[in-house]
Inverse folding.
């Protein structure tokens, strides 16, 4: 992947793993239609990651940023969710400025571990304990989404992040493989701590990408 760094430094190319039109399945915007762009590469390595296929990519994944935006705009999509992998490993200034010129609303899913680039209408911060977010994300994120896998330590992690962040939109989301055992525990936790909301990966329950 080092070979590609020159191409990425100005944001003129991006490693595109997949793109699809679907409904948002997590967080505050659940149920809204959006075009998803999954960018390859991630240096966080969550053991429960459900998009491990995005960690590696090859030359055939590279796409010219301008071409990608043209394609999205020509199809008439008005909302674009950029996810990964970890999108902030790349310079997304060019990508998002072209999207904004096309009057497209931009949503980012990030773990917040790399300096922010780009123009974002909505930032979902999903912090990971093994590599905590940079401070700047706590000031600008629009929602906090904490994945609950290990109980109770992930609740403690969630509270640490909630103390720092500057948004009222706080979500706890059961990690998919442990949803059966952890969802009731999370519901009980939210009843006792009602500043939190439940997020449940709706897209997986209803079988859409
Ligand atoms: Fe997977 Fe996201 Fe964790 Fe990266 S940060 S390993 S893409 S869940």
């Amino acid at each position: 992947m080092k070979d590609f760094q020159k191409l990425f430094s100005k944001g003129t190319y991006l490693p595109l793993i997949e793109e699809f039109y679907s409904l948002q399945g997590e967080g505050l915007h659940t149920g809204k239609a959006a075009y998803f762009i999954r960018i390859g590469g991630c240096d966080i390595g969550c053991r429960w990651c459900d998009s491990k296929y995005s960690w590696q990519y090859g030359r055939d994944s590279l796409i010219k940023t301008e071409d990608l935006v043209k394609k999205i705009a020509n199809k008439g999509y008005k909302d674009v969710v950029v996810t990964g992998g970890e999108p902030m490993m790349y310079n997304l200034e060019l990508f998002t400025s072209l999207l904004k010129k096309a009057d497209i609303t931009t949503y980012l899913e990030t773990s917040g571990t790399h300096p922010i680039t780009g123009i974002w209408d909505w930032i979902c911060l999903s912090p990971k304990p093994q590599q905590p977010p940079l401070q700047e994300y706590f000031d600008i994120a629009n929602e906090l989404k904490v994945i609950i896998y290990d109980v109770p330590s992930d609740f403690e992690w969630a509270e640490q992040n909630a103390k720092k962040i500057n948004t009222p939109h706080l979500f706890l989301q059961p990690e998919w493989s442990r949803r059966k055992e952890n969802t009731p525990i999370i519901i009980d936790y939210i009843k006792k701590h009602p500043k939190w909301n439940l997020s449940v990966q709706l897209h997986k329950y209803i079988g859409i990408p």
User: Anything to note?
Assistant: The mean pLDDT is 96. Strands lie at 13-23, 33-39, 62-64, 79-83, 105-110, 122-125, 143-148, 170-174, 196-198.
